[in-house]
Amino acid sequence: MAAASPAQLAIGVITAAAVALIPATGSAAVSGPAAATTTADPKPTESRLRAELKALNQKVDKLIERYNLKRVELAEAQKAAEAAKKRLDTADEALTTAQRRVAELASLRYQNGGMPLPTIVMPPDGAAAAVLEQLTANQTAVVQGVADARDEKKKAADDAAALARDISADTAEVAKQRDDAKDVIGDIQKKLQELVPFSTGRRSDGSWAPQLPSGADNITGRTRAMREQIQKNFRLPFSVGCFRSGGGGEHPLGRACDFMMSTGGSMPSAVNNVLGDSIAAWTLQNRDKLGVKYVIWKQRINHGSGWSAMSDRGSVTENHYDHVHVSMQ
């Protein structure tokens, strides 16, 4: 199975446009001459919520793709605007130099009349005035050419800056949708959180009655329920291993599962690393409902009161960097 996309981690991120698809809850008052009555809408079922989330995740993928494309476009537009500005600065400098040169020639022409210029070897027969006239005309043409180039570069710079502003505005709008989506997903998560069932065997004092493994998978009922809930709430990229004979810990007792984030003892991808974080956090959040004893992930262990570092066991797998380990009561 392919690695999960960012939008598929945990419940995912829902776009602001999806608000309308979330089932409403509340009441509608009916007024009458005697008394008012209210009728509450039925709560959404788990299957309905998950069906909506599946459809909305596709919209989320498009939103993330659009946001990333806008970021690339913005970077390119900003780069083009900066390059155009540099060309404009160069054109301004060239224009200033050319204008100053023409002014100098005009001043010399006025001061010297038809006399040869000190720095120019003039032709015979009194042609100095004609040469000076030609030089002035040439310099004037240079000024005009530079001025035209400056106007073109200024237009290019203005266009590039305007494009950057437009793309920046588009990017901000997409980012706003993403931020709004985070608020919406909170509501969905709360509804799904309420639907997480309590595992069997919980005593009145909060402790858990021991359970024996059963079934073909040779795990306890609480372990099986925990595995099913995680499989419901996350798109897992690789296999889940629970019972195994031999060794210590809860695996031989049917009270633990490993949720693989990579294979072959390799480090997970960035996406699956985030997925592992999400699974660990969700499991700990629901530990009291599910009967979780502790979670191990990335060489750390958490019994419900915070993460504690573990000693180095010598490999990616032994240090739990490639899988999330969940042990049950």
The termini sit apart by 30 Å
The tally of beta strands, per DSSP, is: 8
Per CATH, the class of the largest domain reads Mainly Alpha
Average pLDDT works out at 79
Unreliable stretches covering 5 or more consecutive residues:
1-38
Describe this structure in words.
The chain has a six-stranded antiparallel β-sheet. It has a two-stranded antiparallel ribbon with strand order 1-2. By secondary structure, it is an alpha+beta fold. Helix content is 51%, strand content 10%. The chain contains five helices and eight strands, in the order ββαααββααββββ. It has helices spanning 46-112, 128-195, 221-233, 270-285, 287-290, and strands at 27-30, 37-40, 240-241, 256-260, 292-296, 300-302, 307-309, 323-328. The model is unreliable at 1-38 (pLDDT under 50). It has two domains: 47-195, Helix Hairpins (Orthogonal Bundle), CATH 1.10.287; 221-328, no CATH class. The longest helix is centred in the middle third of the chain and has 68 residues, at 128-195. β5 and β6 form a beta hairpin. The protein is elongated, with a radius of gyration of 37 Å. α1 (46-112) packs antiparallel against α2.
